[in-house]
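INTERNAL AUDIT FORM
Audit reference: QA-55
Scope: verify that the stored structure record matches its stored sequence.
Auditor: D.O.
Record contents follow.
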Amino acid sequence: MGKGPRCEVYSSAQFEKQLRRVPFFIKEALLVWVESVEEQGLTEVRKLKGYHDEPLQGTRRGQRSVRLNRAYRLIYVEGNDGEITIVTLQEVHKHDY
């Protein structure tokens, strides 16, 4: 798999607070996603169908969603700082069906 532009991943204070309440296996899945983004680039990781990376709409326009498993979602925002893609983790929560 190719390597995309360099990415740095940060987390919001709200995200850090929510992360304390999620199961360990979700934290592991999140860590795998973060490592993949930092190593391969966000563009390449988005191509992986298992994550179902998609833009959000409405009041969440500008944010994106990633599936960590069937129930849990990661919400993030993408930005740029020159040649570096900045990914800021906003939320991790159990998705209601």
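Auditor finding: record pair retrieved intact. Residues 7-94 form a domain with the YaeB-like fold fold (CATH 3.30.2310.20).
Action required: none
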